[in-house]
Design goal:
heterodimer, A: four-stranded parallel sheet, B: TIM Barrel, nine-stranded parallel sheet
Chain lengths: 411, 260
Amino acid sequence: MSDVTVSAGPVFGRRDPDPRGYFGAFGGRFVPETLVEPVERLTAEYFAARRDPAFLEELTGLLRTFVGRPTPLYEARRATAGTPVRLFLKREDLAHTGAHKINNALGQVLLARRMGKPRVVAETGAGQHGVATATACALLGLECVVYMGTDDVARQALNVFRMRVLGATVIGVDAGTRTLKDAINEAMRDWVTNVGTTSYVLGSVLGPHPYPLMVREFQSVIGQEARAQILRDAGRLPDVAVACVGGGSNAMGLFDAFVDDPGVRLVGVEAGGRAITPGNHAARFFGGHEGVLHGTRSLILQDDAGNILPTHSVSAGLDYPSVGPEHAWLHARGRTEYAYATDAAALDAFQWLGRTEGILPALESAHAIAWAREFIVARREPAVVVLNLSGRGDKDVEQVKRMLDAEGTAS
Amino acid sequence: MSRLATRFDALRASKAPGLVTYVTAGDPTPAVSADVLLAIAAAGADVLEVGVPFSDPIADGPVIQRATERALAAGGNLGVTLDIIAKVRAKIGQPIVLFTYVNPVMRMGTDAFIARAASAGVDGVLMLDLPIEESADLCARLGTQGLDQIFLISPTTSDARLAEAARLGRGFLYVISRLGVTGARDQVSGAAAPLVERIRRVTSLPIAVGFGLSKPEHLAEVAAFADAAVVGSALVTVIGEAGADAPAKAGAFVRWLRGR
């Protein structure tokens, strides 16, 4: 099979939610009155765009020439040496800007331009979605404002600088827990104030309908390529597809291509943080309750009164109290399973992949690596694993150094 | 007839400008907050809106965000809000409307929430992030307990959705006079009067106009075209600056708004 086959673009219209945006009991559209019309208009525009050959041609063309798709599928042979497991890394870290986020940002900024909006707002946690949105806005000539919690600004200073160099305005959000959740609050407040001129480019499979659908479909290019590549390289479907899950867009992008293949285990790895106790983690499938946050009904880490709990993760991109509604639905149907990796396990995995394969993963992706590492150790029979290496770790090197210095364990 | 309908009928009959006040429950503490409600009622507010403190108030500007943080830090939440209302209800003749985001209600359970709200003496419920499309079931269940569901109408609300809000809404319609989050402004939005006119064409429900109103002149201006004006952030600012003295200061502020 040639690379022409794997350069197929994202897929659209394959598994839509119901007309009100529900995946089973999850999803929907829970927004203040002022945003209802803008969200409905966005839905109509998105549904028109995804059927428009000119829009799709421009998107897939840019994915190829600007983003550098298809990204490779790389077999990590040293990591599995002496074991019956074959581990394939889907190299989203090699996409332009260093993470999968660009697949979605490019699609949504193209949509904003199509809608005639001159201004875009976005939130960011680790900074990857902010950088991707700033990049797409620079490419297409739109004004870009990125909201970022001040705690995240501190731990991702380099990404803040990257966004500014790309021409974006970065606004620190010094409210609440000063992380991704609060950045989304502030981006939504900006959007509700400036709906006439502004489009909200949401970075994960979260938020009111159509965002969970739209973001998954823009990210579906990951799974489309990976499926063709693993059939080419391993001659069969994988036993396991695994990815880290913050909001869950890189995981949905990968899982999408395998949802209808019952033989493929779909594993999402959440942030276990310091421990699975309130305020110390971001593992929604380990203690979350159904509720509504940021416009969508899903599983949420919250207290008995329905207030959202603070979360903790070494990785800013996974540090979020809710999860994409389609994940909650696939989990309720028994189609996906979720695990968690602690901060310590992710840090170990970050170094392990560096030493054994010469690849520094983003701390987010290192959570999936940590799970795969345990799987490789425990597995006695042959297995093929596809892991979404959603981003590169350059952004995290300084933070990792600080943490290892503090532990006195840097080798 | 509900307390809200009775109050708005009386306002219309007397041609008096109505005043709806908003405060965040539990700000600065649950105990002081109860006294604030009593003081505002005594000072002559027509309808008392009571906001449930929620950790992620996406529709609120900085003033109410800070009030929410004070209330949460003092132990405020949905249950405590209902306790505060239950405590003051017997001493307040005016209708009380609960303002809340949907998540605390879901966590309590809709049926438990409605039962507790009814028994606390709540008259109406406004759910900030529950659109009309998601509201039919809740409206019906609120109705069985004699509670009114209040809807927001914004400059972006289409005619079709306005008709639906008029059909399902009870008590009054709350008109957001401008795009954006809550917060005091210097002037009444020019969009308010035409929007109210558009609403009058489809419903006889009373109309309260809010978002940005902060002084007696605003109330007089709004009284020319709506049934009532809502003052929130300006009052919450007074409470935030007053601390333990909040009941007296809030009462004085409402009398000032009233020109008394």
